[in-house]
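Worked example 3 (structure in, sequence out).
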């Protein structure tokens, strides 16, 4: 059902105004509310790729918790495991206690994810969110190398706490800090200047040049696809070059897989496509599989130089998240994600976007797997397209430095029919 089919008293107000919401949101919640604040609906239940508001309107969810719901809302297998666990009075909050839920998660992660990929990472539970994972990664890199500087990339997004924000390449988000941040040096991301970034020779020359003032950095932090930055896709060979540079220069490579990990681009870790093994990896969002807060920082064993308690936090032992994560890994990754069929589904969206670009102009397409972006030449048109799509029953958000990209992050479990339905709405909205 789309909004057009609804009786007028259920249609709500115009998206983007926030009108039509219960007044408590305006009177009590801070103005800082951002993502999804323009959707004038109060949501209540959700299943698979669908989310329902209090008036009974159903929306196809191509936002999926900003990539936290790779297996959709309330997946029945995960839900059953969670209900069963709670029903048996399983521990919910465990800090760093050894619990059965944590043990089983670790065993499954080793068996299903690490061992088949020959990865020998130590696993740290840095806190509940992606930002916590990034903070731990930055701290560890600096502690392990005894060096201070971090290299980040244009348009990068790594989180909103002081360290993570320091390596976020978005002036608007950085301005939110109000005062200058911890020092980090941005490098141009692949294709940032419109052409191919040939190699990193210039960077090595700067490192060797005593006049450059650049200290050897502790680490480089990179996303293989920049989600918040506007679905900027790095070529695997560029990522490989970067990894080689880091190893040549004894600089740690951190891959931030908070959004692109857990299969978003196809393989479980997005860096698998480039055939590299980063020194440190950050994982969060879809790792619980159920939208529960959970994060991991993975690092090579020799980097495990933390002393007990050196990176603490109350909400690290989210046992229900361990339970759903274990079942999600078994269910979706025992066959290495084959059944999810992510590359083919992504291609379906890519083909539709390419066809749209050829037909109407003014838009182009970028993407990999099931992160797909429709880039508008006129940045004002991307939020407008999202607004029309919302009115017709599709949730999609914008990204990019000027919000010029409609970014699709549907659940990986989405069906072909649902993709077709969503594309129909979005393509129609973009044409308008
Ligand atoms: N890194 C990346 C690549 C992200 O996309 C995000 C969230 N959008 C974060 C870090 C921060 O994660 P969180 O919002 O869970 O703290």
């Amino acid at each position: 059902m789309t909004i057009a089919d609804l009786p007028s008293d259920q249609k709500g107000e115009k998206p983007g105004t926030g009108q039509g919401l219960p007044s408590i949101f305006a009177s009590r919640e801070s103005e800082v509310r951002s993502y999804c604040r323009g959707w004038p609906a109060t949501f209540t239940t959700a299943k698979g790729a669908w989310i329902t508001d209090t008036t009974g309107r159903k929306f196809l969810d191509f936002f999926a918790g900003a990539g936290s719901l790779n297996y959709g809302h309330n997946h029945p297998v995960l839900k059953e495991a969670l209900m069963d666990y709670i029903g048996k009075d399983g521990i919910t909050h465990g800090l760093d206690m050894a619990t059965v839920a944590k043990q089983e998660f670790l065993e499954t992660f080793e068996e299903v994810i690490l061992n088949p990929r020959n990865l020998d990472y130590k696993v740290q539970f840095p806190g509940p969110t992606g930002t916590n994972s990034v903070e731990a990664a930055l701290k560890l890199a600096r502690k392990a190398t005894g060096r201070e500087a971090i290299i980040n990339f244009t348009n990068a997004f790594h989180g909103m706490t002081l360290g993570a924000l320091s390596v976020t390449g978005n002036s608007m988000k950085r301005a939110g800090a109000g005062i200058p941040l911890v020092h980090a040096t941005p490098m141009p991301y692949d294709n940032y200047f419109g052409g191919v970034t040939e190699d990193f020779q210039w960077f090595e020359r700067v490192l060797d040049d005593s006049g450059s003032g650049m200290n050897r950095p502790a680490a480089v932090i990179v996303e293989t696809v920049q989600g918040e930055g506007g679905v900027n896709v790095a070529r695997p060979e560029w990522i490989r070059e970067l990894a080689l540079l880091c190893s040549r220069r004894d600089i740690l490579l951190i891959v931030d897989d908070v959004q692109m990990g857990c299969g978003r681009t196809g393989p479980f870790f997005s860096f698998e496509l480039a055939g590299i093994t980063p020194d440190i990896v950050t994982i969060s969002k879809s790792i619980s599989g159920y939208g529960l807060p959970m994060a991991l920082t993975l690092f090579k064993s020799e980097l495990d130089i933390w002393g007990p308690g050196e990176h603490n936090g109350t909400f690290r032992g989210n046992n229900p998240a361990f339970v759903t994560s274990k079942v999600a890994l078994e269910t979706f990754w025992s066959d290495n994600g084959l059944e999810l069929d992510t590359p083919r589904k992504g291609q379906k969206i890519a083909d539709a976007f390419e066809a749209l670009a050829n037909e109407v102009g003014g838009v182009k397409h970028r993407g990999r797997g099931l992160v797909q972006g429709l880039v508008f030449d006129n940045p004002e048109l991307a939020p407008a397209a999202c607004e029309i799509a919302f009115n017709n029953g599709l949730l999609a958000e914008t990204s990019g430095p000027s919000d010029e990209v409609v970014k699709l992050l549907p659940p990986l479990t989405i069906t072909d029919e649902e993709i077709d339905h969503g594309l129909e709405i979005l393509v129609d909205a973009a044409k308008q």
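Notes: The pocket of 4'-deoxy-4'-aminopyridoxal-5'-phosphate is lined by residues 66, 129-131, 134, 157-159, 223, 227-228, 256, 258-259, 284 (CB under 6 Å). Residues 3-74+341-431 form a domain with the Aspartate Aminotransferase, domain 1 fold (CATH 3.90.1150.10).
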